[in-house]
Amino acid sequence: MNIAHKPGSIVGLPHLPSPIDYPDSPLSKALEQPILLGLFLPIQAGGWTQSTLPRTTDWSFDYNKKLTLRAEELGFDLVFALSQWLPKGGYGGVFDGQALDSFISISALAGLTNRIILISTIHVLYGPWHPLHLAKFGATLDHITGGRWGINVVTGHRAVEHEMFGWPRIEHDKRYELAAEFIEVLNRLWTDKENFSFEGQSSWKLGGGFVTPKPNFGRPVLVNATGSDAGIAFAGRYSDIVFITSPTGSDIDSALESLPAHAARVKKSATDVGRSVRTLLNPMVIARETEKEAWDYADAIVAHADHRSKNGFQSFDSDAHAWKGREGRVDPYKFVGGNIRVIGSPEQIVDQFVKLKQAGIDGLQLSFFDFAPDLEFFGDRILPLMKQAGLRL
């Protein structure tokens, strides 16, 4: 039996199962924590900081594998990494373009880990991916990991990346329409018990598609990062976790002013369609035993700022909305990197984490300047204080 759908008929289907609907899913178990804890792996040269100050941070798989295994030992809930398609030289300077692919590298961790959730960032509109491929790959990874794998859905915002695949950049809101179509079809392939055919706006078609095995908990985990109206609406309808930015800059005080309303808006996008989502934020953590030592380290990072790439991750023509509120802001610590900066002693770091939770943040996807030693310091000095503060069980 083939179930056929014509353009436009798939959007607005009844609620399809999410891992959150299953109390024994890895995601549901992770969400028992007062605040999710993740690690934003540095699979790209330069990590997240545009500085030449010496450090161990490295884009190699071996380095990131060790980080992931250590994060799992420390009780972290998830890891993921960015995906990028850049021309020769990358953004310039320390961001020279050397980078592993997120889908492959995160998937390679599947058989090496036991508990931590693994999220692959994938540009679903590039290539183009066919949803039948990704549905089969995703179902396979779901079974390899016991439901610990998911997708960070990216539509792509840089013109250079679209052009690399042979077409002009797709208009911003149109990208989300196409991504919604893609995810709806993935969901059907993961859940339908009959063959499924589909023809929509995209260049791909589906004629009697069917995928086995079915995922363990309805479907893999879905994440997306966004700040636009179209992206937030997409997140509310499809995502389990929404990766957000501070609309008003990386300084913790300004971030705390704007995040409550922003987080509430994102969560409302889900409740409006009978769902729920969790918000995830990316702090750059610079922690030392004392406040002075932490700020001295931040100053050293800035003193070694790499000016060979003028705009770093914001290089190349982009129509992303998430960072628009930061335009024109003078930020002496911009070279530290991160969505926001959390700097200080262990006690001060935890105090700022508490304030972020009070501002509506449900999870922290951590970045560090020098990942391996900084992660050890975090596990030794900060994580116990998070437990004392009621942020972790």
Automatic annotation (TrEMBL):
Question: Which controlled-vocabulary keywords does the entry list?
Answer: Flavoprotein, FMN, Monooxygenase, Oxidoreductase
Query: A Gene Ontology MF term for this entry?
Result: monooxygenase activity
**Which top-rank group of organisms is this from?**
Bacteria
Concerning Gene3D superfamilies, the annotation shows: Luciferase-like domain
Domain Luciferase-like residue range list: 38-362
Q: Which SUPFAM superfamilies match?
A: Bacterial luciferase-like (SSF51679)
Q: Record's PANTHER family?
A: ALKANESULFONATE MONOOXYGENASE, ALKANESULFONATE MONOOXYGENASE-RELATED
- Please identify the protein, giving its name as recorded: FMNH2-dependent dimethyl sulfone monooxygenase
